[in-house]
Amino acid sequence: MYNYIGISDHELSLLFKNGDHHAFTEIYNRYSGTLLLHAFQRLQDEEEAKDVVHEIFCSLWSKREEMIIRTNLKGYLYTAVQNKVIDKVAHKKIKTAYANSLQEYLDKGDWITDKSIREKELSTLIDKEIASLPDKMRQVFEFSRNNSYSHREISNILNISEETVKKQVHNAIKILKIRLASFIILFFIFFFIFIYH
Amino acid sequence: MPEKNAYLLLEKIKNGTCTAEEKAIVESWYLQWKQENPAGLSEQEFLASLQHIRSALPQHQTGTRRLYRISAVAAGLLLVFGLAFIFLKPAKEQDALQNHVVADFKPGGNKAILTLSNGKKISLDDQMDQQQLSGTEKNIIRKGKAKGELVYDATKENIIVNGDNAIANGTAGLSNTIVTPRAGQYKVILSDGTQVWLNAQSSIRFPVVFAAASREVEITGEAYFEVAKRTRTNPNRQQERIPFIVKTPKQQVEVLGTHFNINCYEDEASTNTTLLEGAVSVSLLHSAKNLNPVTYRLRPGQQSKLTGTVINVATVDAEEEVAWKNGTISFANADIKSIMRQVSRWYNVDVKYQGAIPARTFTGSIPRNSRLSELLKILKFSNINYSISGSQLTVLP
Predict the structure, then answer these.
(1) Which of B15, B29, B379 to mutate to test the interface with A (most CBs of A within 10 A)?
(2) ipTM, 2 decimals?
(3) Potential cystine with B263: which of B14, B272, B332, B366 (Cβ 3.0-4.6 Å)?
(4) Domain B111-268+315-321 has CATH 1.20.1290.10
């Protein structure tokens, strides 16, 4: 068993760069909710927001070895979500609303030239979004970061019956059982070869 | 000067041609851009989305802590028996067993069978064993610089392609065949310098040394050609280009010197010829009945589709069509069955369908050296489920 919940982002990213799977899981637990909420807030499209988060974590995993996290893990992920959202906007078929807002900004003709200031502001902005979540969403958000709630707690938060929660967990266990079955088959293969020699 | 038009600027972002200054402007805009009356995700949508993303990640763990414990017990058991096995058994068997267990999920590699003109079959993988060569070709064939590459080098023995030396050398009229199995690919450089990449489950038959006036090969499956330009002096003492003809079971393609891809797998609905560079003429197979069939000239970026006896020409994303040759499995608006046909050839799995087959189309790409499970994870992200037993992959609704 592992427990990375208490460790700092900095330690986490070091562990991750060394290829630690649990560190990756913990980074996912810590940040996926935040990134998803932000991407959805900007894109207003569930599928696109999911894509953004999925792509970020896929590339985070595949690039872990060559990755140099310039500032910090949080800054890196927030910049990634910003870039992906901007990219999605640029690829949208209908982008009138976005283009109008951008045009207004372009016409004003001034912008923040310092990269580190932009990064800091982005960080403040996204943290603020999370801080201002409605109560119930906030609970669910905390739940998503720390996956150790009981059936009853989940059912209370989601306002669905405990039965439904049990059923969902049951489904997850079923998948695991299939995996266990393949372990057992493997074990028998080992076993027979052992006997025959 | 940075771009002042929002649409054009967005276009530049899309194409990745932004300057650093333009990037700074867009990022600054991003900080103060607000959606009017944004909708929020519901709590259930939020959790379901996260679960969905997590299940599609390359490295993921699902379920609750309790599940971790069950899997820890299973892993522990496995470790004990695994260790016992490693220490008590010779290493060779252990390798064989491991290969047996995981082989179904590995991507294909450099594998092919070469048949020499004397009928001898030679198995090719990353490297060719020069010792195995025999017959007249012995001094002509060598392994290439890259892995999985075979070179027919006629210059070594001073055999000039458009000379008569081939006859003197005894290679005239001799053909070789290279066949790739499922999950195999190979590259061959022919005696005229033409490069051919063979995809999985494909074949090419070609003369060991091309004759003076014509160049002709036959293929099945899928191959990408980079044809070398060759000229000869005709009896009127004029220089003329030597055509290169590729025959497939149903059509023939005549070229002068160009880059193109032919996909003529029997299980695909059509024979597709895609041109990347130069010019080619596509026609139905010339036959006694059909001495002079209609030919279609393709321009770069165009693809001809032969269905039945009808040829249609359209503009396509040519790079996409030859992604396989560049080491990528790529599909654009492809239905699940056509993706699975590729999967079946490259991963050597049989594919079955259970229940209704989703009619949706998919767009995406993944390196060809990925394991099958990685590709399936991406499809699972689009709600395509599957089960695997042995070398049988079943797509579930």
Answers:
(1) B29
(2) 0.76
(3) B272
(4) no
